[in-house]
Amino acid sequence: MATTPLAESSAASGWQRRLANLIQPIVLLLPSGLWLTLLLVAPTLLILELSLIPGFRLGQPAGSYGLGNYLEVFQPVYLQVIGRSLGFAVGTTIVCLLLGFPVAYWIAIKAPKHWRNLLLVGFVLPLWTSSLLRAYAWITILRPSGLLNTVLELFGLPGQSWLNRSPAVLIGLTYSFLPYMVLILYASLEKLDRRLLEAAADLGATPQQSFWKITVPQTLPGIAAGGLLVFIASLGDFVVPELLGGASSMTVSRLIYNQFLGATRNWGLGSSFSMLLILAVSIAIALLLKYGDRSAARS
Amino acid sequence: MPPTNPRKFSRLSPSPRFSVARRRFLQTSAAAVSGIVLSNCARNLSNNTAPSAETSPTADGTTATDSKTLHVFSWANYTDDELLKNFKDQTGISVVVDTFDSNETMLAKMQAGGGRAYSIIFPSDYMVEQMIELNMLMPLDRSRLKGIDGLMPKWQNPVYDANNAHSVPAVWGTTGLIFDPQRVQEKVRGWDYVWNNVDSLSRRLTMINDVREVFGATLQYLGYSLNSTKPAEIEEAYNKLLEIKPAIAAFMTNGWEDQLASGDLQISMAYSQDAIVLMEESPNLQYIVPESGSSLWTDTMVIPKSAPNPDAAYEWINFMLEPENSAKLVERLKFATPNEAAFNRLSPEVKNNENLFPPQAILDKCEGIAPVPQDIADLYDRFWTQLTST
């Protein structure tokens, strides 16, 4: 008998706790949930629907559903465009890694401690200006009578004509996304366990051995994350290829723009390209989640 | 089709009109989420021919609801501060001008419902025809238009809009080649030069970023009509264009100006309007209409059915038609006016500028771009995508 009130009160508080447990996540997740649903899920579904209507054009009667748009994607000329986009993205990722790793390594490990933040800020500084401006800056540098050729001429070297060709796109993309790579690699290198390096040195490992057997494996998650970020960003970038790529470097993002707002409007085809781009990026992320984590766990 | 300033990406910058688009977008998305519209969304979009003919724009909360503001959607360089000031002094209506750089961009925006604030738009000839077909334009009340009889006879009854029932011609021009005579190998008379000098031009030629202009010029070069609807001729033009692909730096309507003036580019295909603006700064440049002919374009003023302020729109059109205002504007901005009364008031220097007002012999070789049947338009589009993708 004496225990009943106690049991009752605990039952009540248990019910309250359960309610709180229920409400808390809803309140916390509601803003982001709404945001994602309205601005990510719904538009994506809309694009998915458009992509399933062959030849859909704004203002004209829509045809019936079909896979025509996706079949059209497999024309050689479009496959070439997709291949070129992937090439740019992979190329940018590799160049960013090769350029970014030594920089991040130097800032995180070799540079004097009180300088590190300043150096990082210096590296991130270009991100404060609009990507459009930076692309225009590269036009001034790369054009035939531009800065690059003036300098090359000064040293008696042959002039380059990279503007409006693939090299210009690769340069522009690398310049745009290198800071992200450096930031992520820095974060990862900063946490490097130095005691392992000392132990390796004690046990007779050469600097080269300890770099490949200790430093690189420990920063592998950072390399994967940085690489993926650069890959995704450069795969979808529109401004750089549009401004620096010229007439013969069509990429998927430019193609999508042209289908929606350019001279040849075919929203259906543009949507199917968008869906394929989303798919490609999703696969890349899935791969990272699967293999990125495993390598992190191993190290 | 014609001019814009080099702000090619102005649409990327935030501007008041985007808030309208975003609101519309949110509405659509919200409806989509609730599952009511999703299955029909694409169809709704495609049937949305007159964006807001049936709904009152005021109910939609656009920014242009008061009668003392007029929102104008125009190509760049067709208005200036002085014009807007004079208009305000005379009518008490303040004008907000937003610019677009292609007819297609403008149309897409209007169709998506993002252009409800505008009471005046400046579409080109073929786009007027398309917008009439889409039931987007308000028929003009002739009794409210003063001075429309002052138009040159050629523009009294244009092919794209019989008797100017929906549009008032505002600016016209040609499409041609601009270059520095000192930097080219031989005298440039037309497209011959480009096909004969592909090697030396190596990525130093730009062409307008417009399928019909580029194919039209090539078709004329081959001796066909700019408005060819024969698939064999269009394919021939495509193959001909592939030959000069190595010479093309980029397809750009604007943005070539600096590089042409500095010699990084040798030749640019351009609208006469843009060429004339640049030649004011760089008199060493020369503009020609190719001897095989070119397109002759007209940009017009129209009132969309969704116009929140048609009264102010009529005031604007009448103000622009007024010979004195029009002549002064032409003197300042250097464009070709179809308004005879205004033309007569121009200074001899402007009147005799053959780039602005080409002699009849050249005009005879020019054709206006006319809409083509949908299957032919698709064919043009397919070849254009292939040309720009390879």
Query: What count of helical segments of chain B does DSSP give?
Result: 17
Number of domains of chain A: 2
Please count the helical segments of chain A: 12
Secondary structure category of chain B: alpha/beta
The value of Rg of chain A in angstroms is 26 Å
**Tally of strands of chain B:** 9
Biggest sheet overview of chain A: none
Mean pLDDT of chain B: 83
* Cα-atom radius of gyration of chain B: 21 Å
| CATH class designation of the largest domain in chain B | Alpha Beta
What's the CATH H-level superfamily name of the largest domain in chain A?
Answer: MetI-like
CATH 4th-level superfamily of the largest domain in chain B: Periplasmic binding protein-like II
| Strand content bin of chain B | 5-15%
- N- to C-terminal distance of chain B: 25 Å
SSE class of chain A = mainly alpha
- Total tally of structural domains of chain B: 2
CATH second-level architecture of the largest domain in chain B: 3-Layer(aba) Sandwich
Description:
The complex is a heterodimer of chains A (299) and B (390). Chain A has 299 residues and is mostly helical. Chain A has two domains: 1-51; 68-298, Orthogonal Bundle (MetI-like fold). Helices cover 78% and strands 0% of the residues of chain A. Chain A has twelve helices and no strands. In chain A, α3 packs across α9, α8 packs antiparallel against α9 (207-236) and α11 (252-260) packs antiparallel against α12. The longest helix of chain A is centred in the N-terminal third of the chain and has 49 residues, at 3-51. Chain B contains 17 helices and nine strands. The model of chain B is unreliable at 1-44 and 46-64 (pLDDT under 50). By secondary structure, chain B is an alpha/beta fold. In chain B, strands 4, 5, 6, 7, 8 and 9 form a six-stranded mixed sheet that branches. In chain B, strands 2-1-3 form a three-stranded parallel sheet, covered by helices on one side. The longest helix of chain B is centred in the first third of the chain and has 18 residues, at 16-33. Chain B has helices at residues 16-33, 41-47, 81-91, 103-111, 125-133, 192-196, 198-201, 211-221, 231-243, 257-261, 272-281, 310-321, 323-333, 340-344, 348-351, 360-363, 374-389; strands at 69-74, 94-99, 118-121, 167-179, 205-207, 248-251, 267-271, 286-288, 296-302. Chain B folds into two domains: 15-172 and 304-353, D-Maltodextrin-Binding Protein, domain 2 (3-Layer(aba) Sandwich); 173-296 and 364-389, 3-Layer(aba) Sandwich (D-Maltodextrin-Binding Protein, domain 2), CATH 3.40.190.10.
